[in-house]
Amino acid sequence: MDADDQQGPGDSQETHLAESHTQLQGETSPANMAFLDHLEELRWRILKGLAAVFVGAILCFSFSDPIVKILTRPYEEAVFSLEAQRSSNAVQAVENLVRKWFDLPNAELEPVQELTELPPGRRLQALKPMTYFYISLQVAFIGGLILALPAVFYQVWRFIAPGLLAREKRLMIPIISLSVFCFSIGALIAYWIVLPLGLRFFLALEPPDMTSQWAADEYIGFVLRLIMGFGIVFEMPVMALFLAKIGLLTAERMRNIRRYAVVGIFILGAIFTPPDPISQILMALPLLLLYEISIWICKVSQRK
Asked: How many helices (H) and strands (E) does the chain have?
């Protein structure tokens, strides 16, 4: 008899188990290793991004005082403008009264002196013992995230780059540079245009015999959310360009979902701004414009 015929039942069972184990390893090992490699890569990219945010947060926390002064400057200017307007109106009213009753056409009062510091009732209030510490933490976190954006964008790109074609990988530097530029433009528009307009509108709604006192931490949180929100939404054209270049988004698709996008835009406006319609509209209008620009960008990129 051959050697194979002389194997007992135990030998056959061991051989069968060994073959099954080898087959199981061959079927599952490559896929599992690929999946685990992706998880490991994702973990390291997240850790590196968080490390960049942490470094940026430390820097912003160290310079929290000048940063807070920069963030409160629009409020001070809005208060100065409102107080000057009210004082000017009061002086004009007195001048008109003097001219009316005393028949003095050339009577003029002393001009209103320009304010150099906030009136006591207009200063931002610290209503909690740890208010300024909370403000410093907000400044550190949001400021650190903003400073680390180039590094975060780079880590995201490095994670998705292995799945892209060579021509798509060449978009790395332009896309990251454009992302940082668009975020900066959105943040500057929020700080220089939207925030002053919103503050002056809110302050102008106050009756002359009433003075509202704003909490410092709530004001700083509002400003940081507004700046961060505008920076994020100004990334929409960049994302549209990237997705169109890799074939995941078309102008026709964006037109078809426009009605749903409008609803989502107003939801984003409610998230990043206080719960009042004026702030939501101030954020929603640029978003709607950016959405239309993104459609045009997709259309142009598809032609190339």
From this structure: 12, 0
Structure tokens at 183: 């975020």
- Could you tell me the pTM of the whole model? 0.72
User: How do the domains of the chain map onto residue ranges?
Assistant: 17-64+130-234
Alpha helices per DSSP H over 113-234: 131-147, 149-160, 166-169, 172-189, 195-204, 216-233
Condensed to tens digits (0 to 9), the pLDDT of residues 107-139 reads 444 444 455 566 666 788 888 888 899 999 999
N-to-C CA span, the chain: 75
DSSP 5-70: TT--HHHHHHHHHHHHHHHHHHHHHHHHHHHHHHHHHHHHHHHHHHHHHHHHHHHHHHTHHHHHHH
Whether 69 contacts 77, CB under 8 Å? no
